Every structure is written in C-alpha cells, then in structure tokens.
From TrEMBL:
Tree of life domain: Bacteria
InterPro entries on file: IPExxxVDY_fam
Name of the protein described by the UniProt record: IPExxxVDY family protein
Length: 161
C-alpha cells in the first residue's frame, strides 16, 4: 500500500504584507503623529499592547484600518525595556538592591531597528517606494527600509490580529 504525504508548508508560506523597518529615537506617539502627517493615514493607539512571555515584555501598538483599500496599517515598537530589582549578595556592608534593565526585542534579528510599520496587504513596488520616500521625509527619522517578511525567523511575532 502506498503512503501519501501532504506537505502544506508552501501553501501557508507566503505572507501578503509589507514590513518597513524604522530607525529613530522618537517616542512611539510622536512617530505615529509623523507617519500620520507624512503618509496621510490615521494611526491610533491600540487599547492593548502586544504582550509576550506572560507580561514580561510588552510592545506599543498603533493601528489604522483603511476600509477603502481593505488594508490594516500597524506601527509596533521593536524594543521593550524592563526594570528589575534584586538583592545584592554580601558585596557590601549594607544591604541594597541592584537595579537591572533588561531589553527584549520583538524581532531579535533586527536589534538596531526601533519600530516596524506593517501593512497587511500586498503592495506593488512603486507604492512601497512611495511610502518609503514619504517616511524618509520626516527629519527625525534616521533611516527606513523594507524587509522581506518571509526571510524572518521570528515572523510569528508579527501576527497581531
């Protein structure tokens, strides 16, 4: 008897979204304002942040749904810094707590990226270039570029909905 094996990896491999990496030192709300201004969109803060590892790391999320184009725009932070305090072990005469700042990344492959702009719709090359040029018009943004989402190891972290 012949054994038939179905492989479904190729069916679900392609993601129809555009991912833009943004390098800047702005706060998340200021970047959302600038993107709204330069792209003509209306990003608003999501009531719930992205929560990974049981509230050990949370990432701010701004979203806008374009009903005309049937597209969801999402701006998400890549960096989460948390403070922890731990007791020092007999290192000094006085007992004191030591403050440790831990940094977690939404997409660890891109640790230098501050924010990601995810557009949930397949966009042609000319429209993607137009979006990138408008993002780069903001003087506070150091650089921005497109990322192939299918090459990411941690692309599952970009599933928000």
């Amino acid at each position: 008897m012949a054994v038939h094996k179905l492989i479904l990896d190729d069916v679900f491999e392609e993601d129809f979204c555009t991912l833009i990496a943004i390098h800047c030192t702005l706060e998340d709300y200021r970047l959302a304002y600038l993107l709204n201004k330069y792209l003509g969109i209306s990003l608003t803060r999501s009531p719930l942040d992205l929560d990974y590892q049981n509230e050990k790391s949370t990432y701010s999320l701004f979203e806008w749904e374009d009903s005309k184009q049937q597209t969801i725009w999402s701006l998400v932070s890549n960096v989460c810094k948390t403070e922890e305090y731990r007791q020092r072990k007999n290192e000094s005469l006085f007992d004191s707590q030591e403050k440790i700042i831990r940094t977690a990344y939404l997409i660890p492959e891109y640790k230098t990226v501050n924010y990601f702009l995810k557009i949930d719709n397949e966009i042609n090359f000319s429209k993607e270039k137009y979006i990138l040029n408008n993002v780069l018009k903001a003087p506070q943004i150091a650089t921005a570029y497109s990322i192939d989402i299918n090459q990411l190891k941690s692309k599952d972290n970009l599933i928000f909905n």
